[in-house]
Structure to design on (1388 residues):
C-alpha cells in the first residue's frame, strides 16, 4: 500500500487504547489522526499516559466531535454495550476493528442470553467477521467490520479448534483452567482492581458463569459441528499482562497427546505469531510479554489416555490490540507482522 | 499439660524453619531449646532472619552438636533424602514431626518409584503416621513420628477425600489445577526462584509428572478403596504464600454440586481450621495468609452434571509449619488451635 | 483491668478498620461491640473482608445507629474532615483514639493552612493528645482523645526527635526520603491506586508539598525548640505494607554518626517496640510486616561529617492501627504490648 | 553505513546480554554473528531465554571458541574483573562496547581503591572513553573501546552534571537517594535476589559505601572542576526494571529550582532520549520501561532555597544495553535512535 491509512482510536484513555497507540505510532503505513476519550476530552494523551510525552499525537476529543471524512479506519476500544450505539453512526467508508465483545456473538439469541438485553445493532452484527486472524484471514481481508476476539477465547481457541476440527478430542471433556493478568480488567475504578486487593494473592472469579464462555462455545461448536460446552474457569494473577490456559483433554480413539501435538504443530507451521514448543515443553506468559505471539505446549497427562495442553499470550497484544493491528494489516493487504515484530520484554 | 515441652527445630534457616519459630515462640506450652542449620552453624537466627532480632532464641548449631537429652520433640525441616539418615539417629524418647516428603508414602515401592532410590529408614517409615490432622488425629495423638503432609496435597485432599469416601464423585474424573506461591520452593538458590524469573508472569511446571502426585494418589486411593489417579498440574504464582486448587469433578449418579457441598460442609462442621463457604462462593489465598485455615468453595460447572470445587491455604502454615504445630498440639494433648489463632494478614 | 472494655470501630470497612479488628479480636481485655461503615451498613464484616468469615463480630451499621451507652472507647478510622463532625457528637463518657489527621495539629492556623479550611471542632482539638506512645505515654494514659500519628511522621519522628532534643544535629539540614506501601492510600477508588498503575514501577508524589510535612514540622520544631522545616519526599513502592525512611543528617560540632547511634539507642533502650540495630546495619520493611515494631539503623555517610539514618515500620500497624491499640492499652493501664506481640510475617 | 556490522555478544546468558539481543536482533544495520556464555556453551539462546524461540541466532559458545576475524564489534557483558583479562585478547580490528565497570574509572588509583586490586589492563583503560552518549558523543564516535556507564550513575549524572558545569548548585550539598529494580543485580544466584527475599518489601543496601559512588564522584568532580562527594544511597524496589533518583540540591546564589530546571531543559533540548518534564512534574519508572529514554523533573523543595530533582530510566536499556546500542550507533555513524525507538510497555 503506497498511501497512508488514517486511523482513529475510540476510547484511547483505556489500556487497550494506549496499547493501540504504542503499536500504531511506529507503524510505517498508518497515521493516527484522531483519539477519543469522552470523559477526558480536552486533555492530551500524554496527560493520560505520560509514556507518550513528546510524541506527535492528536488531542483527546469526544466522539461527537470527530470529523469522519478524514478517517479511513477506526479502532473501537469502548466499553461493552455503548459500542453498538456508536458504531451504528460510523459512515460507510470507514472500516472498523471493534475490540469490545458487542459483535463477537453471531447469534442474536446468544447475545441476549449472555448480556441480558437485545442487541441494538443487528444489521452490523450480521456483517461482522469474528477475527482470530489465523482462522479467518480471507474473510477479515474483505470485512468492513471485524469483531476482535476476547483474550481468554483467543488463548483457548488457538490450541483447541484445530483438535476439534480434526475430531481428535472428545468435545464433552474439555477443561480450560485460565489465568489472566490484571490489565484484562481494564482501567475501571473497581475495588477488586486496587493494588492491595490483587497483589500477593490469587483467586478465581466468574466460576461456572463468565461471558467469555459464550465465545468459546460458539467457536468450539463451529469447529466440532455440534454443540460444545467446555468447563472454563478464569483466575486473576498478580501480574499486569498475560494469559495462561491449562487445558485438560481426552483424545479420541486412535489419538494421544503426541498426535494432538502433531495436529497443532502442523496447523500453525506457517504462522508467524503462533509457536508450538517441542512435545513436553510448556511456555511462560513472560516469554510473550509485549508481543503478538502465542506459545503452545503439549504433554501427556499422568491419567492414561489424557493430554494436557498449555497456551500463553499477552492479553493486551494478541488478546486485544495486537491482534487488532494484525487484523488491520490483513484488511489493508499489508504483511501481517508489520509493526508487530517486537520481541518480548523479559526480564 | 503443666510442663513445658522442649523443642528442637532441624533446618531452622529455611522458610519452614523460620515459620516454625514464628509460631512456636509465642506458644505457651513449649520452649525452643535448639535450632540447627548445618551451613550456618555458629551464627544466630536473627542473622539469618532479621525479623527475630532481640528474641531469646538458641544459637544455630550443627545437628551433630545437639544434646538430645534435653529435647522432647523435634521438628525436622530438612531437605528430602537427608531426612532419613538424620531421623534414624534420633533417640527413642524424642517425638518427631517431619516436614519433609521422606515419610509420607507408606508403600516402599511407591517411594522408590517417585524418588529414584530405596528408602533408607524402612523401620521408621513403617511407624510413621501421615498427618492431615482433621483426618487422623487419633493416630497422630499416639504417634512417635508424624509425616507432615505436603502443601499441594493438603489442599487437594481436604476437599476431595470426603467426596471419595462418600462415593459421591467419579474417581477417574478428577482434575486438580493447583497454583502455589513461591515459598513452596524454599530458600534454595535456583535460577528459577530469582525475583526476575518469577515476578509479573505465570507458568506451569512438572506438567504430567510431579512428586506430589504420589501423595495425592495414596490418599485418594485409600479414600476410594481402589486405585485413583487424578490429573494434577502445579503452577507458580508471583506471590510469596498461598495455594489455590481449582478442582473439576464429576458427581456420581444421584449427586450434584449442591450435594457435594453438603458432604464437605458436614464433614468439616466441627473443625476449627476448615471453613466451607456458602454454595457458589469461592475463596482467595489472601484471606488465609499467615493463618492455619483452609477455605473451601463449591459451584456448579456450566457443563451439565459437573462440579467445581476450590480450596485455599497458606502453604507455609496449614501446608507446612502450621499443620506441624497443629499435629504437635494433638500429640501433646493440647487444644489444636493453641498458638495458631492469628487472623489473616490482609491487606 | 478486670472488666472488659467495650469497643466501637468507626469506619470498619477501610484497611485501618480491618487492621483494628485483626488486632482487637484476640485482645484479652476488650470486646468489639460495634462496627460502623455508612456505605456498607446492613452487611457484615466478613462480606467486606472475607478473612473474618466465621468470627463473632457485630454487623456493620451506620454511625447514626450507634448506641453509645454500651461503648467505652471508640477507634475512629474515618476519612479526614468528616471526623471532626462525628467526634463532636461522641458522648463524654467515651474515650477516643482517632486515626485521622484531624486532631494531629495543635495549632489551628497550621491546620487551616494545610487543610484549606477552619477546624470545625476547636474545643476537641485543644484537648487532643498527639500520640506517639514512646514520647507521650503519660499524657496518653490520661487523655480522653488521642490523635494517633500518621505513618510517615511516626517513621520520621521516632529516630529524629531524640537527636533534635539532644542538639546533636543541625535542624536546617534534615532530608527525609520516605517510601510507602500502597495501603497507605487506603481502599479508596482512585486510578492511581489500581494494581496496574502501581505494580512493577516506582514514583514520588507530593514532591515539595505533602500534608504530612505539617506533622513533621510540628514534632521537629517542638523537639528543637525553634522552627524546623525538613525536606520530605514521599514515594510509592509496589508493596502492600511498610514505610522506609532514609534520613540524611548533619551532626553538630562534637557529634558524628556513631554518637547519633548512641543517642538513639539509649533513648529506646527500654522500649518494647523500637529496636535499634548495630551501627552500620539497616532494616528492611519486610522484617516488621504485620508487627508494631520500628527498626532503626545508623551509618556514616561517605560525605565527611554526615550521617545516614534509616527506619522502618508497618504503616498499618505502628503507623496506624497497632499504635492505636498501643495507645488504648496505655489509656486502659494495660501492658502496652498486649495483643501486639505477633512476629513478622516473612517471607 | 551500507555494509552490515557483524556483532558478537560476550556473556549473552545474563540479563544485559538478553537485552542486547532483544535490541540488536531487529537493528537494520547489524547482524549478531556470535554469542558466548562459557557455562552454557553448547546450548542455544532460546534454551536460556525462551522468548527467543524460533529466532535465527548463533549458538552459545565459549569465548575461547570465537573466530574474531568475522567480528567487527563486540559487546562485552561479562562480570566485573574477568572483563579485563578477556578484553586484552580482543584483536585490534574489533571495536568494543564494554558494559562492565572495569573501564569506567580513568584513575588507576581510584580503581584499585574501590575494587581492591590493581587494574590488569592499564593500556586499554587509558584509551577507554566513558560513554554517556549525550555528554561524549564525539569521543565515542572515534573510540575503539567505550566504557558503558553504570545504571545508577547515568541516572545521577544526566540531571546533575549540567548543573555542576553551570555552577548552579553547591557541590558539597548533593544527596542522591536512588532506587533500583532487581534486574540491576543480574541473574546471579544470591539469596538476596530470590523472589521471596525481594517481593513486597523495601530496603537500602551499600549504605555509605557502594562502588557506583566512584563513578559519580569522577563525573561530578570533572563537571565541577574540583573534588565532589555526593551522598548516595541505593535501594532495592520490588520491580524488575527501572531506576528512580530523588536528588536534593542547594542552588548557588542567584539560582533557584526554576533556574535549575531551565538549565537542564536547555542542555537536553535537542536530545532524542532525554525528556525534561514541565516544572513541578515528576516521572515514574513505568513510563520509560523497555525504552532508552530518561525523564527528568524539577520542583521547589519546601525548605527555602533548595530544589528537588527526580530522574528515571530503565536500568537494562538507558542504564545498560540500550545506551550500549546508542553508543554503537554513534561509533558506526548511524542515527543514534536506530533500533531504539520502542515506546514504553505500560501497563
Amino acid at each position: 500500500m503506497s498511501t497512508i491509512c488514517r486511523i482513529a482510536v475510540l476510547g484511547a484513555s483505556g489500556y487497550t487504547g494506549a496499547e493501540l497507540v504504542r503499536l500504531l505510532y511506529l507503524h510505517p503505513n498508518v497515521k493516527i489522526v484522531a483519539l477519543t476519550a469522552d470523559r477526558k476530552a480536552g486533555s492530551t494523551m500524554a496527560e493520560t499516559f505520560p509514556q507518550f510525552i513528546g510524541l506527535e499525537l492528536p488531542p483527546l476529543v469526544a466522539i461527537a466531535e470527530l470529523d469522519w471524512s478524514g478517517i479511513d479506519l477506526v479502532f473501537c476500544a469502548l466499553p461493552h454495550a455503548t459500542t453498538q450505539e456508536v458504531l451504528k453512526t460510523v459512515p460507510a467508508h470507514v472500516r472498523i476493528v471493534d475490540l469490545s465483545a458487542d459483535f463477537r456473538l453471531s447469534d442474536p439469541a446468544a447475545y441476549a442470553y449472555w448480556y441480558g438485553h437485545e442487541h441494538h445493532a443487528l444489521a452490523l452484527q450480521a456483517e461482522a467477521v469474528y477475527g482470530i486472524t489465523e482462522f479467518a484471514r480471507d474473510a477479515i481481508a474483505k470485512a468492513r467490520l471485524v469483531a476482535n476476539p476476547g483474550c481468554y477465547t483467543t488463548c483457548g481457541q488457538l490450541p483447541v479448534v484445530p483438535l476439534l476440527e480434526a475430531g481428535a478430542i472428545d468435545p464433552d471433556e474439555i477443561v480450560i483452567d485460565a489465568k489472566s493478568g490484571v490489565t484484562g480488567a481494564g482501567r475501571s475504578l473497581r475495588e477488586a482492581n486496587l493494588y492491595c486487593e490483587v497483589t500477593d494473592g490469587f483467586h478465581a472469579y466468574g466460576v461456572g458463569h463468565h461471558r467469555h464462555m459464550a465465545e468459546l462455545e460458539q467457536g468450539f461448536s463451529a469447529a466440532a459441528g455440534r454443540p460444545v460446552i467446555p468447563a472454563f474457569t478464569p483466575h486473576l494473577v498478580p501480574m499486569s499482562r498475560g494469559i495462561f490456559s491449562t487445558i485438560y483433554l481426552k483424545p479420541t480413539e486412535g489419538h494421544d497427546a503426541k498426535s494432538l501435538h502433531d495436529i497443532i504443530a502442523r496447523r500453525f507451521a506457517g504462522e508467524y505469531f503462533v509457536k508450538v514448543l517441542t512435545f513436553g515443553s510448556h511456555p511462560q506468559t513472560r516469554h510473550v510479554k509485549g508481543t503478538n505471539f502465542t506459545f503452545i505446549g503439549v504433554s501427556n497427562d499422568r491419567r492414561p489416555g489424557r493430554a494436557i495442553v498449555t497456551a500463553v499470550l499477552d492479553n493486551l497484544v494478541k488478546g486485544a490490540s495486537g491482534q487488532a493491528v494484525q487484523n488491520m494489516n490483513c484488511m489493508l493487504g499489508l504483511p501481517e507482522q508489520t509493526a508487530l515484530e517486537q520481541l518480548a520484554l523479559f526480564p
